[in-house]
User: Fold this.
Amino acid sequence: MSGIGKTTIAKYVYNSNFREFEGSSFIENIRETSEQTNGLVQLQKQLLSDILNGREVKVHNASQGKIKIEDAISCKRVLLVLDDVDHIDQFDALLTMRERFYPGSKIVITTRRARLLKARGVTMVHSVRALKYNESLKLFSCALKKLEAIPNSEIMNKLKMSYDVLDKHDQEVFLHIACCFMGNDKDYTVGILDGCNLYTTVAIMNLIDRCLVTIGPTNKVVMHDMIRDMGREIVRLEAEEPRKRSRLWHYKDSFKVLREKNGTKTIESLELNMQRHLEVTNSRYPNEIVLETNAFATMHKLKLLRLSRVNLTGSFEKFPTGLRLLCWIAFPLDSIPIVFHLENLVVLEMQYSSLRQILSGTK
Assistant:
């Protein structure tokens, strides 16, 4: 995950230990530099210059650079820190010859892709964990003034780097988790999103590799709050009007869209907790709030719907037909109307409902 402190830790390790070695090099922003023209060669030249105490070495291509690095590292103890390694080509350009390092040399690598290290046989891996609440509070107290000077957009842009390198499919899974499935059981999440024609197991593996999600000890899908907020900000920026966004999770936005009945085919997921809405608005007359089923009529792509203590009036005949998840806490009717489209559902949840029979009529 970007912004969690990997580079800061690596710099501390380097600054505390480089004097104990005959040569040293700290190469920062490897991912960014490698994307430039002859980027891998630039990185190799920097490593050689650092280890050889500033002596400039001519390198015409990456293959030649590997040979010269091997010669330089095989004759003295060196400390090498590679920051933000993002691709196997970067690893190979700088460390293919790692078996040739002089005894006692040390290599530190920071990356958002843990599987990259495993693919090249790196066995000693330390994951930088997010701070616990009390630790975060202490850090926040110390860094408040500094954070006030950093625009929120800069923080989000830093975090968004790990999202931007995902392919379109994995970005979709990430946004679904950030807006709808954070803290849910992994198998539950996979089952529903697979029903949305997504390859969720593979996507979650990729998100874990990028340190965007983890799987908790009870098989829950876990995402750091800052990462969740970054994902939701991406959705919020899709459009100024909530009705034109792909996902609605905030009660205020969801209620507005349903009340005004102006939802669009863009909306894929919607969540509304009416009890939360009433608490915040201090409504004294909740029964006067009327929402109608036809508010969903234009949401043709709606797949994920979570409602809590919501009363709808009208016919369900034009209710969305593509729902994969319907979670309706305190469903108010004593049976599910016969015109309700259930054929694509993967999960149906109706805790604390008034149901006495599943369906009314025949179907």
The radius of gyration is 27 Å. The longest strand covers residues 23-27. The mean pLDDT is 84.
